[in-house]
């Protein structure tokens, strides 16, 4: 019968064992020994496998615990550092409260974000030099309510800052205006039509390069193509034709110097219909301690 096993060598080992077990009683003892040996080997493999799993879990848990302990230790050391204590004590002195935007029907008066000291980032900066340095303070924003981003369909007519934006509508003396602004290191804004743009293309491009902004009040499709490489604004009358663009409208239409003195207030957009005395207007506004800015800055809520 043993000879028969060699002749049937392609059989699976278990089948052969079963065959000899059934027909060759002397082989029964050998079969039992082999089966027990194989079972024992399988058990040993499983034990080793499980040991490896638990070992890896233990190593991972230890690493996580070590990280948490190390991180906590670093935080404790930072909190007790004299420099950190000093930063925290002075942080309130640099706090800037924000102002919420105000919505009135279709208009919005822009607010702005608040600022507070990021004590940990400020500490990391100053730790490099070892002492408190005001110029190395790091700030973080405090978001305000009723932002322009969430009310892009509203018309901007004012903001809550100590500044004004000057607006010039198709001015006949644009070159002179640009030179006055340049000499005073100021930026302003030009409210223009398609025809005006075509007739003053080079001058307007120069004005944009100098930091002035454009507001359009007609032919939105034309300007979308012509000004595709520039930021620009839309006048309020184009509200349905300028999706996703900021809508602008003047707070006051200033026709002379007396009217300027009467109407000037922080956060205004001033349409200057008369520009012969622009130098005087600028000096008066700056003399009141009010900044003159472009609409890009005027509509920034930071």
Can you give a write-up of this model?
The chain folds into 3 domains: 2-66; 83-102 and 112-146, no CATH class; 152-298, TIM Barrel. It is extended. It has 12 helices and 13 strands. It is 48% helix and 17% strand. With 302 residues, it is of the alpha/beta class. Helix 2 runs antiparallel to helix 3 (25-80). Strand 8 (213-216), helix 9 (220-226) and strand 9 (232-235) form a beta-alpha-beta unit. Strands 1, 2, 5, 6, 7, 8, 9, 10, 11, 12 and 13 form an 11-stranded mixed β-sheet that branches. A two-stranded antiparallel ribbon has the order 3-4.
Overall pLDDT score: 83
* Percent range of helical residues: 40-55%
Known CATH architecture of the largest domain = Alpha-Beta Barrel
CATH superfamily heading of the largest domain = Glycoside hydrolase/deacetylase
- The first-to-last residue Cα distance is 96 Å
- What's the CATH C level of the largest domain? Alpha Beta
Please give the radius of gyration in angstroms: 39 Å
* Domains (count): 3
Point out poorly predicted stretches: 1-13
Note the main attributes of this structure.
two-stranded antiparallel sheet; 12 helices; TIM Barrel; 3 domains; 302 residues; extended
Helix-strand blueprint:
Elements: H1 2-7, H2 13-23, H3 25-80, H4 82-91, E1 102-104, E2 107-110, E3 114-117, H5 119-126, E4 139-142, E5 155-159, E6 163-169, H6 174-183, E7 189-192, H7 194-199, H8 201-209, E8 213-216, H9 220-226, E9 232-235, E10 247-248, E11 252-254, H10 257-263, E12 268-272, H11 278-287, E13 291-293, H12 295-298
Parallel strand pairs: 2-5, 5-10, 6-7, 6-12, 6-13, 7-8, 8-9, 9-10, 11-12
Antiparallel strand pairs: 1-2, 3-4
Helix pairs in contact: 2-3, 4-5
